[in-house]
Amino acid sequence: MRDLKNYRCYGSTIDHSTAILEELGYQVHVECMPAARLFTLVEAGKVDVTINISTTGALENKVTIIYPPYTYLSIVLANHAEKSDGETVAAITGYDYTGLRQELVKQGYTFIDVPSSLDAINLFLHNRTSSLISYLRPYEYYLDNRVPDKSVKTHHIKRDIPTYFAISRTSKWHDELIKRFKDYSESQQISLFIEKFKQTTSKQLAPAQKNATSTN
C-alpha cells in the first residue's frame, strides 16, 4: 500500500521480502510504482527483485522464477448489493487474474483498469464501479480496521495461485541472487518462503557488499 502523505510503500510483503534479502546480505531499496512501470524497469534490470505470479504476460522471458513459492493467493470478487448486474469491474491494468478477466468479459463485464490495487479498491468503494476484482491479501489489508460496508458483498474465489520471487534476467545480481535464494531455501527446508518470513524480524545487518532493489 502507498502512504498518501509521504508516498512510501508499506505492507507485510515488503517487510518479509526486505527481511529475507537483508538476511541474504543485501541492502534493499523499495520502489513504489504502478505495475506497468514495474514491468518496464524489471526488463531493464533497474528493478532486481519483485514478487509475482509466474504467468504474468508482461514478465514472460524477462525474469527467473525462484522456487519454492513465496505464498499462495486467492482472488476476491466484490459487488455492491444495489448493483447486482455487475456491469463494470475495477481492476489493475495488465493483470489477467489467472484467466478470470477473460471469463468475466465473456459474462458481459466491462473492465475499468487503473494503475494499482489501491486505485482499484478506492474506485470500487467510492461507487465508481459496480464490482471489484482483487487479490484477497491487499483487499483485506486495505479494509483492516475500517468499518465494514454492509452493502458490499464479497465472494472468495479459491484458486491457490502460487506467487514467487522473480529475478530480473538483466539484473547484474541475477546469478548471485538465484544461488543465494536456492541455498537459503535448501538450508531452511521450507515449502513456502513466507513460512520463514513470519518467523523472521527485520534486522540491521553488517554493511552489505551488494545492493538489491525490491518492489511490492
Which sequence of SSEs, written as H and E, runs from N to C?
HEHEEEEHEHEHEHHE
Report the mean per-residue pLDDT as an integer: 85
- The secondary structure category is alpha/beta
**How many separate helices?**
7
Tell me the number of strands. 9
State the low-pLDDT regions, or none. Answer: 200-209
How far apart lie the N and C ends?
9 Å
Q: State the helicity in percent bands.
A: 25-40%
The coarse overall form would be: globular
Beta-strand share of residues: 25-35%
Let me know the largest β-sheet.
Answer: 9 strands, mixed
Return Rg in Å. 18 Å
Report on this model:
- This protein has helices at residues 12-23, 35-44, 100-106, 117-125, 136-143, 174-188, 193-197, and strands at 26-31, 49-53, 63-65, 71-80, 88-92, 110-114, 131-135, 152-168, 210-215.
- By secondary structure, it is an alpha/beta fold.
- Strands 1, 2, 3, 4, 5, 6, 7, 8 and 9 form a 9-stranded mixed beta sheet that branches.
- Strand 5 (88-92), helix 3 and strand 6 (110-114) form a beta-alpha-beta unit.
- It is globular.
- Mean pLDDT is 85; it is low at 200-209.
